[in-house]
Design brief:
The complex is a heterodimer of chains A (295) and B (191). Chain A is an alpha/beta fold and 295 residues long. Chain A has 13 helices and nine strands. In chain A, strands 8-7-6-5-4-3-2-9 form an eight-stranded parallel beta sheet. The longest helix of chain A is centred in the middle third of the chain and has 19 residues. Chain B has five helices and twelve strands. In chain B, the strands form three sheets. Chain B has a seven-stranded mixed beta sheet with strand order 2-1-3-4-12-11-10. A three-stranded mixed beta sheet of chain B has the order 5-6-9. Chain B has a two-stranded antiparallel sheet with strand order 7-8. Chain B is globular, with a radius of gyration of 15 Å. The chains are: A alpha/beta (295), B alpha/beta (191). At the A-B interface, strand 1, helix 1, helix 2 and helix 12 of A face helix 1, helix 2 and strand 7 of B. Chain A: It is an enzyme of class 4 (lyase).
């Protein structure tokens, strides 16, 4: 029997197994274990969470491989890691280390201001950020096996993630409602590959899983994104910048699963301590907006 | 016929679609009380560690264990781990299927693969998608091995319980789901 690795089915399938779950940013083995014990479906191994990247300034790069390795050794759930946009070698290094998923991420300083990675050439699957369907479809065209909204990372402010998820979903609905002879012009207008729009039209949804990311700070934020149609949630700074990360992690996991059980959400939101301090988006200078990165 | 899918996390909608395609009614199960009305239950693929935590949060383990004692249950991938009587390196979960499961037995995601398998009584060439898959390291007497991959047991049946390492919900081939619903759920095997 032939054996096929790195196929679309295997890469997109991996993301399907994450559905309904919470993926948490962690910077060491101890945090990874807290995330796993709380019920995270995966962890994202990083050198700094996005809010600390904001605070530190300078160039943000792929994490030190020792941190990634430490996290991989600490947990049995999948481990993701971030590579800079267009940084072929960071991505290949993470793939060689055996990480389960790579995030080609705008949270890090881009290595290429014109081109993204050709993700179809890798065995490891990729997740990428998007703000609208054009961006989502371009990333799928390059081979991304999973999407997430960009939101505005490290702010603890959900407004941008809501904007991006609503936008993508409204544009998907419009494509599904179109006649096939209208799709080429729509592809031109969105800057999207025609084939991806055709697949959306035929399947009635995006061909890959789409998570929410970039600003989730409370259990209610996570449930809101599920309510708006996200397949799951990334929580970056929201957990380990909260007053009580263990309780916060457990509560966000439960609120994501039972996102329409409002009594439960009220219950798990009690006595979990203070969430991370947020940032009003309008206070960010143009150059501080990570969501603008990506092309 | 009503077949439930444990809907806490994972490939829930894919399984529900497959159940409907086999002509049965599919029900998303998020609470223990919902099990009472079911003729069979699917434990979907997902992250087994997270799924176990969510089972505990919802206090569903006693109800799931009771159900699996005499009603048909089909566990795929993470569901296989939940069903196994013994799980290497950790405590068992629902623990009703007489076998030993080994987590992530085929490696990490870069080792995940597609292949075709012969499944006894089901198909000569079943498209099987293995994603960070577990394997069945051993089975006890009386457990039927339905499929192997390069010598590893990847599908088995123990009385009213069925488990596979791979993801039948990710392909259009409904023969294994049909086998579960028609051969195992309609008889309502009770010990």
């Amino acid at each position: 029997m032939s054996i096929l690795t790195g196929s679309d089915v295997v890469k997109r399938g991996m993301a399907l197994m994450q559905k309904g779950g919470v993926i948490m940013d962690v910077v060491n083995a101890e945090q990874a274990k807290i995330a796993e014990a709380a019920g995270a479906v995966a962890v994202m191994a990083l050198e700094r969470v996005p809010s600390d990247i904001r605070a530190a300034g300078g160039v943000a790069r792929m994490a030190d491989p020792r941190i990634v390795e430490e996290v991989m050794n600490a947990v049995s759930i999948p481990v993701m890691a971030k590579a800079r946009i267009g940084h072929i070698v960071e991505a290949r290094v993470l793939e060689a280390m055996g990480v389960d998923y790579i995030d080609e991420s705008e949270v890090l300083t881009p290595a290429d201001e014109e081109f993204h990675l050709l993700k179809s050439q890798y065995t490891v699957p990729f997740v990428c950020g998007c703000r609208d369907l054009g961006e989502a479809a371009r990333r799928i065209g390059e081979g991304a096996a999973m999407l997430r909204t960009k939101g505005e990372p490290g702010t603890g402010n959900i407004v941008e993630a809501v904007r991006h998820l609503r936008k993508v979903n409204a544009q998907v609905r419009a494509v599904v409602a179109m006649n096939e002879d209208e799709l080429m012009t729509e592809a031109k207008n969105l800057g999207a590959p025609y084939e991806v729009l055709l697949a959306i039209k035929r399947e009635g949804r995006l061909p890959v899983v789409n998570f929410a990311a970039g600003g989730v700070a409370t259990p209610a934020d996570a449930a809101l994104m599920m309510e708006l149609g996200a397949d799951g949630v990334f929580v970056g700074s929201g957990i380990f910048k909260a007053e009580n990360p263990e309780k916060f992690a457990r509560s966000i996991v439960q609120a994501t699963t039972h996102y329409q059980d409002y009594e439960l959400i009220a219950d798990v939101s009690k006595q979990i301590g203070t969430p991370m301090k947020g940032i009003e988006i309008r206070q960010l200078a143009q150059g501080e907006r990570m969501q603008e990165r990506g092309w | 016929m009503k077949i439930g899918v444990l809907a806490l996390q994972g490939a829930v909608t894919e399984h529900m679609k497959a159940i409907k395609a086999c002509g049965a009614q599919s029900i998303a199960v998020k609470q223990g009380e919902q099990l009472k009305e079911l003729d069979g239950l699917l434990l979907p693929g997902g992250e087994s560690t997270a799924m176990r935590r969510l089972i505990d949060y919802a206090q569903m383990l006693p109800a799931l264990t009771e159900f699996a004692k005499n009603k048909p249950v089909f566990g795929t991938c993470a569901g296989l781990i939940l069903l196994a009587e013994t799980v290497e390196g950790e405590e068992a979960h629902i623990g009703q299927m007489r076998m030993t499961a080994r987590r992530n037995a085929f490696g990490r995601q870069v080792d995940s693969f597609e292949t075709e398998l012969a499944i006894e009584g089901v198909s000569d060439s079943f498209p099987a998608v293995f994603i960070r898959a577990p394997k069945i390291a051993a089975v006890e007497n009386g457990v039927e091995v339905l499929a192997t991959h390069e010598g590893d047991i990847v599908c088995a049946k123990d009385r009213h319980l069925l488990a596979c390492s791979f993801h039948p919900e990710l392909t259009g081939d409904r023969s294994l789901m049909k086998y579960f619903i028609e051969k195992m759920c309609s008889k309502q095997t009770v010990n």
